[in-house]
Amino acid sequence: MSHIHSREYMDGGSTVSVQCSHQINVLVMDDTNYSNYKSGRSCRYYGGFYKMLPANITVPSTGYWNVVLALPAGHRANIRYSINIIG
């Protein structure tokens, strides 16, 4: 499963803002759920598939959060993206 990953420490209420050149899945999750995601197991996340960008996702609590950018299954592209933390 190919994806772009960034792990950031964020305060609760901060917003992850993702800009991307393609429609994309933007998933924000804690470490346990990211481990499940990488292993192909069920996971809980904030976000989803975005056709309109930027994607703005607010984290519910302070701690380390994983931001995952993943194209829909079967798609490939050279994407341009930025991940910014606001707040």
Number of domains: 1
Strand order of the largest sheet: 1-6-3-4
Mean pLDDT: 94
H/I helix tally: 1
CATH architecture: Sandwich
Helix content: under 10%
Question: What is the C-alpha radius of gyration, as a whole number of Å?
Answer: 12 Å
CATH topology: Jelly Rolls
Terminal Cα separation, in Å?
A: 31 Å
Strand content: over 45%
- General form: globular
CATH class: Mainly Beta
Q: Sketch the topology as an H/E string, one letter per element.
A: EEEHEEEE
Largest sheet: 4 strands, antiparallel
Number of strands: 7
Query: Helix- and strand-based class?
Result: mainly beta
Query: Low-confidence runs (pLDDT<50, min 5 residues)?
Result: none
Organism: Erwinia aeris
Protein name: DUF1883 domain-containing protein
InterPro entries: DUF1883, DUF1883-like_sf
Pfam family, one: DUF1883
Can you walk through the features of this model?
With 87 residues, the chain is mostly beta strands. The chain has a single domain, classed as Sandwich (Jelly Rolls), CATH 2.60.120.380. Helix content is 9%, strand content 48%. It contains 1 helix and 7 strands, in the order βββαββββ. The strands form 2 sheets. Strands 1-6-3-4 form a 4-stranded antiparallel sheet. A 3-stranded antiparallel sheet has the order 5-2-7, with no helix packed on it. The chain is globular, with a radius of gyration of 12 Å. The model has no long low-confidence stretch (mean pLDDT 94).
Strand-helix topology:
Elements: E1 4-10, E2 15-20, E3 24-29, H1 31-38, E4 46-50, E5 55-58, E6 63-70, E7 81-86
Antiparallel strand pairs: 1-6, 2-5, 2-7, 3-4, 3-6
Protein name: DUF1883 domain-containing protein
Domain DUF1883: 1-84
Organism: Erwinia aeris
